[in-house]
TrEMBL record:
Biological source species: Pedobacter helvus
Protein name per Swiss-Prot or TrEMBL: K(+)-transporting ATPase subunit F
Annotated Pfam families: Potass_KdpF
Gene designation per UniProt: kdpF
InterPro entries associated with the record: KdpF
Length: 25
C-alpha cells in the first residue's frame, strides 16, 4: 500500500537524521 510505503520512508529518514545528528539526542 502507498501509505505503508510513505510511513516506511518517513521512519527511515527519521532514523537516518538521528544517526547523522546524534548530538541533538
Amino acid at each position: 500500500m502507498l501509505i505503508l510505503l510513505i510511513i516506511s520512508i518517513a521512519v527511515f529518514a527519521y532514523m537516518l537524521y538521528v544517526l547523522l545528528h546524534p548530538e541533538k539526542f
